[in-house]
UniProtKB/TrEMBL annotation:
Domain Bacterial bifunctional deaminase-reductase C-terminal, chain residue ranges per copy: 2-172
Coiled-coil blocks: none
Signal peptide region: none
Domain of life of the organism encoding this protein: Bacteria
The protein's name: Dihydrofolate reductase
GO molecular function, one term: 5-amino-6-(5-phosphoribosylamino)uracil reductase activity
InterPro entries per the UniProt record, alphabetical: DHFR-like_dom_sf, RibDG_C, Riboflavin_Biosynth_HTPR
Organism classification: Bacteria, Bacillati, Actinomycetota, Actinomycetes, Micrococcales
Any GO BP annotation: riboflavin biosynthetic process
Length: 186
């Protein structure tokens, strides 16, 4: 069964952005060995993207006039009015992630659903028991403060480490299953 996945990079101390949404600490690692292959392999399995409004606003500010996910349906959870770039398949929604899960699965057409961000949105999926997998690239910097990787309501049961590998420039990619028994293939 297709998975709902949180593919994300975080600092060594568990932040995905600074308090002001600055990503320069991460962008300095663009082009690291294995990073492009990891991303391309991941995207080959993605049929639908889900993101938060702050992530969408950041993309529109930092990549004006472009949409990096052409051909992939995207749902944006937001409380603000936004305009989609021309030709982008974007649906703006409000509400509980559980209300839209069937829509995500239908749009994904048998492929995986990528929760792009932010951490609060991914935590809503996890708290609802809908997040199946976290694919985390640990970036070798310490931010000290910022937007948390996964600000959930409480502790989870132990996650199952499905894979790990070292990539270039000291980056480690970890794949965790949140529902270990459900994620096993027979």
């Amino acid at each position: 069964m297709p998975r709902i996945q949180y593919f994300v990079a975080a600092s060594l101390d568990g932040f995905i952005a600074t308090p002001t949404d600055d990503l320069d600490w991460l962008l300095q690692f663009d082009g690291f060995d294995g990073g492009t292959d990891s991303y391309n392999d991941f995207m080959a399995g993605v049929g639908c993207i889900v993101m938060g409004g702050e992530t969408y606003a950041w993309l529109m500010e930092h990549e004006p006039g472009t949409w990096p996910y052409d051909g992939t349906p995207c749902y944006v959870f937001t409380h603000h009015e936004h305009r989609a770039p021309d030709g982008a398949d974007i649906t703006f929604v409000r509400g509980d992630v559980r209300e839209f899960t069937a829509d995500f699965r239908q749009a994904a057409r048998g492929r995986n659903i990528w929760v792009v961000g932010g951490g609060k949105l991914a935590a809503q999926f996890a708290d609802a028991g809908l997040l199946d997998e976290i694919i985390l690239s640990v970036i070798p910097v310490v931010l000290g403060e910022g937007k948390r990787l996964l600000p959930m309501k409480g502790p989870t049961p132990p996650l199952e480490l499905a894979a790990s590998r070292t990539l270039g420039r000291g980056i480690v990619e970890l794949r965790y299953l949140l529902h270990p028994a459900a994620g096993r293939q027979s």
